From TrEMBL:
The lineage of its organism: Bacteria, Pseudomonadati, Pseudomonadota, Gammaproteobacteria, Candidatus Competibacteraceae. It comes from Plasticicumulans lactativorans. Residues 93-110 have a biased composition (Pro residues). It comes from the Bacteria. This is Uncharacterized protein. Residues 85-110 are annotated as: Disordered.
């Protein structure tokens, strides 16, 4: 079953070990209402190896809308798998990547 979810994505890291490829997205959510945590929860969510290349040039960390698939995880528990990421609001993303920024001093109009 596929769903759309909003995540604050910190970054994505991929791996290739003995012919097995995969990647993980690191997402963050506030630890509101959790007396045992100060700050935020950081979660590791699996995703396809190719998602790293698909997200190059996107500003991270930032808010994203993720298409996720609900899968059977270990011990019969529900697990998320990120299929795709799209910026939630491209105009308000923090930390734009170099090359995606407007010039600091645009040329004056004649």
């Amino acid at each position: 079953m596929r769903q759309l979810m909003n995540f604050h994505v910190l970054g994505i890291k991929r791996y290739s070990v003995d012919g097995s490829e995969g990647a993980s997205a690191y997402v963050m959510s506030p630890a509101e209402g959790d007396p045992n945590t100060v700050g935020a929860h950081v979660m590791k969510v699996p995703c396809p190896y190719a998602l790293v290349d698909a997200c190059r040039g996107m500003p991270m960390p930032g808010d994203f809308q993720a298409e996720v698939e609900l899968r059977a995880g270990a011990q019969g528990k529900l697990a998320l798998f990120v299929l795709s990421l799209n910026p939630a609001n491209p105009k308000s993303q923090p930390n734009p990547q170099p090359g995606n920024q407007p010039p600091a001093n645009p040329a004056p109009k004649p």
